[in-house]
Amino acid sequence: MTLTSFGPANRIKRSAETHPLTWRLRDDGEAVWLDEYQAKNGYAAARKAFADMAQDDIVQTVKDSGLKGRGGAGFPTGVKWGLMPKDESINIRYLLCNADEMEPNTWKDRMLMEQLPHLLIEGMLISARALKTYRGYIFLRGEYTTAAKHLNRAVEEAKAAGLLGKNILGSGFDFELFVHTGAGRYICGEETALINSLEGRRANPRSKPPFPAAVGVWGKPTCVNNVETLCNVPAIIADGVDWYKSLAREGSEDMGTKLMGFSGKVKNPGLWELPFGVTGRELFEDYAGGMRDGYKLKCWQPGGAGTGFLLPEHLDAQMYAGGIAKVGTRMGTGLAMAVDDSVNMVSLLRNMEEFFARESCGFCTPCRDGLPWSVKLLRAIENGEGQAGDIETLLGLVGFLGPGKTFCAHAPGAVEPLGSAIKYFRPEFEAGIAPTRAVVPPLAKPIVVGA
């Protein structure tokens, strides 16, 4: 995995003014520990928040910045924070960092946690101050062993420096932070399934309402934010709303920068911090370098396996939620995947749907039964054994498992790429339908009842 913030056609040096998430990164890819982080202005935003800002002012600043969730849903962060109860008598509240990152083709949070663990801790510290939460958990994907090691070390460094624990920065505010490794389930990326798992329960999503802000982990008010979301908070507090909004390109309705990437058979696969509003073509050509020699771009996904496929002509769409929605899908995590012209779409979709079917929690019928049904049909079509009507059945499943039809968003995300693949590449699916036999052959021997 590589991390650069400039492409071969546009070499711009990372700086605090233009790259709030990545300017502190080391060129050798090693982690930035406490001394170096503080030398690079680390925890200055936390000190400002504790010394100069009321808790409600922090919430309002984040709301005014236009920061939205970076985990894929894109819900306004300040609005989410505003849902936490104002009642001062509720003295037990929790802040959870969703670091599960099980979305295929997504590794942005991993980079932040492995190389800039203190940026996440500072973001959580400021957020905890704003939300009056006394304890926080980083719910980490179990496979991220290096991230777990680095985060635990960074937590200990922050404790020793008086930046976590009791009476932080002499403010009288207490905040404990723990790293909790999960057992490796995709569904834990859904915030209420994450809460159930943290409590030691089966990772099923919960019915909403009540929302976590009212009844969350262990029945207490809880706020759940993504890693990248929380890592944006220090820069917003340090440098202000107007500066943060100015980072996005003209035309973008999303503010700030975003970690974006491209994988697949491109010349320069990687991850870059870019302003919202860059086009998919800039990301693909200037940063990822286009396709490798001998390969042609067939289609691409803009933000993880749960987003719909787009064609090469859609590369001119701006990379922000509304810009990608204009061409028929979602921004998702912002890490794109290029599909080359050697890939059979039926095989690709069968592989994807097998993953999503396996990762379903099984709580609701459409998801539990519908996703394995799609796998069965796709496998038959892949083997040339599909039957007339199978494609229509698949499209029916796309509708039955769509938004609002299931208990959580797992199934709608699972079938979105399926629907788009059939839309753009239907002949590849039709090629797997076996010819219909005009005459059913007679039985070899007559059946005589009672013989």
From TrEMBL:
Domain NADH-ubiquinone oxidoreductase 51kDa subunit iron-sulphur binding residues, every copy: 346-391
Enzyme class: translocase
Reactions the enzyme catalyzes: a quinone + NADH + 5 H(+)(in) = a quinol + NAD(+) + 4 H(+)(out)
EC number assigned by the record: 7.1.1.-
InterPro entries: NADH-UbQ_OxRdtase_51kDa_CS, NADH-UbQ_OxRdtase_suF, Nuo51_FMN-bd, Nuo51_FMN-bd_sf, Nuop51_4Fe4S-bd, Nuop51_4Fe4S-bd_sf
One Pfam family this sequence matches: NADH_4Fe-4S
Keywords: 4Fe-4S, Flavoprotein, FMN, Iron, Iron-sulfur, Metal-binding, NAD, Quinone, Translocase
One Gene Ontology molecular-function label: NADH dehydrogenase (ubiquinone) activity
Needed co-factor(s): [4Fe-4S] cluster; FMN
Chain's role: NDH-1 shuttles electrons from NADH, via FMN and iron-sulfur (Fe-S) centers, to quinones in the respiratory chain.
Assembly and binders: Composed of 13 different subunits. Subunits NuoCD, E, F, and G constitute the peripheral sector of the complex.
Similarity comment: Belongs to the complex I 51 kDa subunit family.
NCBIfam families: nuoF_fam, PRK11278.1, PRK13596.1
Name of the protein this chain belongs to: NADH-quinone oxidoreductase subunit F
